[in-house]
Amino acid sequence: MSNLGVEYSEGSEINLTFDRNYTLITLKITNCSDMEWYLDFGIAGINSSEILSLLGDEYRLRYMQKLNISSTLYNVILACGIEGKNLSSPACSDDECSLAAFFDTDLNFSDSVGVKVGENFTSGLYLAGIGPWPGEGITTANVSSLGVKLWLSDTTISYYTMINESNQDLDLNKSTNKNFTIVVYDGKNNGVQELTEFAVDDDTEVAEISDGDNHYDFYGDETGNKEYYNRLPTDIWTDSIRFGEEQENLSWEKQPSWEIMYYNNASMIIAKHKWCLDENDTFGVVIKTYEFNRTSISGANISVEKIYMFGFGFSILEEGSDYSVTYVLNQTNEKGYGLLKILPGSSWVDGEYMVVINLESDKGTEKIREHFRVGNCDMDKI
Question: Cβ contacts of residue 295 below 8 Å, gap of 6+?
Fold first, then answer.
């Protein structure tokens, strides 16, 4: 047996040289025709009692990947256990799951850092997701309380927010005791770095782990509701977000679904369409202005012209006494959006109403007419 012309006897340890891409430079084996032999090699410094292999010691299988974070190169080994103990996931057998990751920067794993999801491998970076099936890789984040397993694309940076219901009953169950995690990410593998989709969960592990019928977190069954996935709005199109499972025999107003009216990579406006109001309700109107080719019209001036009330005939309400208007965006922004809120004076009177809104720009003038009802709201809900 020889390596670069150096002779070795049977049973000798041979040090092989690899480059940064783990390519074997030279290995030449001779004079082996009359004997049974095998070659067993791996990365230096692996302690098999600490970095547990997949499928047990008989196969000694571990997955390895490279990771570049801010020009620091990490070598990462995926294993089924840590500190000599197998980790557990209901998604797969204990010795078949990738559930721990070992991070190293010098190709010698004797000083590697082994972590589970939620634990840090540097002072500011954490393992946010792994596997659980072999070879599925990892996700890193700069927060320890977030667990993520999503099909991320094009090396686009994903973003998250954690919100609670202290100001709004998002799942509409009449209580405000839940926290929700929203992750926005690039779900299109098309070479374009663009946030296209989002996921919502009522726990901190937004993990797309399922065997079809059952849904899981990283180290146990799904807690609470399963994740909800959808697309972010584009151009003139809106989309929906949901904070719980929809219920049968409930109107749209009572379902935990909301329309995403606006998203700009930093903020999201969600709304619940209501056409029937209570006597003291304030309501908002979102305006979107676009050309026929779907390019936005910015700088259009927005104003409420009149509010009509219908009964036996109609009457025109008086601004200032019967209602007031707060213009959040009195000119459409670069994406064509405007926003206003309409408040009752003392209170709305039961009846049918119509708001007439003027839009003026160098493109021309348009009028928007929106209808709403006050009172008898349980009669005609969708």
Answer: none
Q: In this predicted structure, what is the pLDDT of residue 104? A: 92
**Same domain flag for 292 and 320:** yes
Task: Please tell me whether residue 96 adopts helix, strand or coil conformation.
Answer: helix
Report yes or no: 169 and 154 within 8 Å, Cβ to Cβ. no
Q: pLDDT class for 23, splitting at 50, 70, 90?
A: very low
Report d(CA 369, CA 357) in Å as an integer: 6
For residues 65-89, average pLDDT: 85
Question: Does an H or E element contain 310, and which?
Answer: strand 301-311
334 in any annotated domain? yes
Pair (342, 379) in one structural domain: yes
Q: Which residues contact 362 (CB under 8 A, 6 or more apart)?
A: 299
pLDDT above 70 coverage of the chain, percent: 83
Residue-range definition of the domain harbouring residue 74? 42-144
Task: Tell me: cis bond preceding 132? Omega within 30 of 0 counts.
Answer: yes
Residue ending a domain, choose from 126, 144, 162: 144
Whether 254 and 186 map to the same domain: the answer is yes
User: Tokens 């949901």 map to which residue?
Assistant: 242
Are residue 268 and residue 282 in the same domain, yes or no?
no
Intra-chain end-to-end CA distance of the chain, in Å: 81
- Phi/psi at 306 (nearest 5 deg)? -155, 160
What's the total number of domains in the chain?
Answer: 3
Q: Does 245 lie in the same domain as 152?
A: yes
| Residue that the structure tokens 């340890």 belong to | 13
Position 9 confidence tier, pLDDT thresholds 50, 70, 90 = low
What residues pair up with 108 in beta bridges, in sequence order? 44
Residue 130 near residue 99, CB atoms below 8 Å: yes
pTM score: 0.73
Query: Residues for the chain: how many in total?
Result: 382
Q: Is 33 left (phi over 0), alpha (psi -120 to 50) or beta?
A: alpha
